[in-house]
User: Which sequence fits this backbone?
């Protein structure tokens, strides 16, 4: 019986290490996304200044994608921090609070979409082992306790024309450019 608890504690220790690595890698993953968002915003601004509204709206899709991914990375980072802080409870997953279960489900779901965070793949396996295959399967699908906003940010459709127009208008307003979509 003591061997079981030791194995679980080792597994939890490995999980904490992986989560810490994932947090540090989130900071690294943000940099190119921020750069791409900035470049795409600049492109939208230039296209608007040239009067090419249709192309500017199309380019706004990249701004939306990068912004969604940046928000998702922030959520993943928060989930990782939550799991690290409350890691002592992970040795008894059936007694975990809803907050921990939501964080675990979010990390499991995000592992599929965040290829620039390879630690999440290993973390997903450990969490699936701790919480069970049924929980893991539901989390991978984006159901169970996964935040719907995270699901939308990572896998949602950014092609919504109203959102593109809204982002284009916001960029135009920041740069004192008037835009008429009619």
Assistant:
């Amino acid at each position: 019986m003591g061997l079981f608890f030791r194995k679980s504690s080792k597994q939890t220790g490995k999980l904490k290490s992986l989560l810490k690595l994932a947090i540090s890698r989130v900071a690294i993953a943000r940099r190119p996304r921020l750069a791409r968002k900035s470049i795409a915003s600049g492109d939208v601004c230039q296209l608007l200044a040239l009067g090419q509204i249709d192309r500017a709206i199309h380019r706004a899709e990249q701004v939306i994608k990068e912004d969604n991914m940046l928000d998702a990375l922030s959520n993943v980072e928060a989930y990782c921090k939550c799991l690290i802080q409350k890691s002592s409870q992970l040795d008894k997953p059936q007694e975990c609070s809803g907050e921990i279960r939501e964080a675990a489900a979010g990390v499991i779901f995000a592992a599929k979409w965040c290829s620039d965070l390879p630690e999440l793949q290993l973390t997903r396996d450990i969490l699936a082992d701790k919480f069970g295959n049924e929980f893991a399967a539901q989390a991978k699908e984006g159901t169970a306790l996964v935040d719907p906003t995270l699901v939308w940010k990572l896998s949602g459709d950014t092609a919504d024309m109203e959102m593109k127009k809204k982002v284009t208008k916001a960029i135009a307003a920041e740069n004192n450019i008037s835009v008429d979509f009619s």
Summary: Residues 107 and 142 are 11 Å apart (CA to CA). Confidence is low (pLDDT under 50) at residues 1-7.
